[in-house]
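Hi V.,

You were right to ask for the full record rather than a summary. Here it is.
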Amino acid sequence: MLFGMEERMPMSSIPSWKVRRASGLSRFLPAGLLDLTRKKYLIIAALVFFYVFVAGGSGFYAQVRLWKQGHDLQRKIELEKKKRKWLNEQAAGLSQDSQRIQMEARKESGLGHKDEIIIQVQP
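Predicted structure:
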């Protein structure tokens, strides 16, 4: 001992620069709770992957379901457009074709031509 200084012995055999200090969440949790092995990391990663890409609200399954709904709606829209076009053609035909107007009027009122016999059946 020189000049009253004590020679200090290290408390452990591990050098101080190798000592791992607790940081973050591990300070507050019991030791070993977050001790994850590679297998646990893979399981957690697989579950996160499954939820995000398959089962989540914007996952693969949800995207496929939305695509199918959109495709079905597009088909319904096309069908309604075709129906509307046909109805417009029928309406235009009724307003311009005098023979068709006469035929439709005869059907509704139950009238016929001079040589026709009309029999009405009561349901």
